[in-house]
Amino acid sequence: MYPRIFFSGDTSINVEFDNVISEKVNNQILEIAEIVASQHIIGIIDIVPAYREVTFVFNPLLINIEKFQEFLQKQVVNLPKNLNTKIGKIFDVPVLYNQTVGLDLLEVADYHNLSVEEIIKIHSDKEYRIYMLGFLPGFAYLGGLDSRLHTPRKDTPRLQIPAGSIAIGGEQTGCYPVESPGGWQIIGRTPLMMFNPNHPEIKLHAGDKMKFYSINESEYSRLSDISFNDYFAEEIMV
């Protein structure tokens, strides 16, 4: 029976919703997260929204966990079934789509019986919702991928995927913020430095949106190694 509340460790408690990827569920998750954050509850260390649940990390020495459980239960019971999507930021990210940096671009095109140009157009035409961050610092799991581009992950993951690689994994798309192993299909690369360990602030949040636009090699070189945070230094609200 969903939603349900349960402990996921000695210092964390979850609110879990239906086992689906949907904006409706994600809106409910973000609403619960926002309600708790707005209360500034002593002892809550972190709030981590995901696809179908939100995790609250707490200090057991500072919080009355029984009262917090009761508070969560009350919020869940009173949560509207249909919530309006909150308007967040839109990040319009430059991408070089070619077979040099798009290591699987041709393979993805062949898999779907589409041209490379069609793959690029379909992928860059969509606006993607950030459902959650995870796996790597700043790795945004993006929903809303056109069904024509749904592509299985690779049978054998690569040991090294370059930072900035734009990829497709099943029904999702995303960008590898740092060099990493991975099994998603690589179709392009952004020149932006998505994550800088010397300045680890991450601008992306669940509920924000990301869109990609195609650039050429000259633009790629011009933008190379510019920090994602610097590139989006201005607030871009819609």
TrEMBL record:
InterPro entries: CT_C_D (IPR003833), Cyclophilin-like_dom_sf (IPR029000), PxpB (IPR010016). Pfam families: CT_C_D. Keywords: ATP-binding, Hydrolase, Nucleotide-binding. GO terms for molecular function: 5-oxoprolinase (ATP-hydrolyzing) activity. SUPFAM superfamilies: Cyclophilin-like, PH0987 N-terminal domain-like. Its EC number is 3.5.2.9. Residues 3-205 form the Carboxyltransferase domain. Coiled coil: none annotated. This is 5-oxoprolinase subunit PxpB. It comes from Leuconostoc aquikimchii. The gene is pxpB.
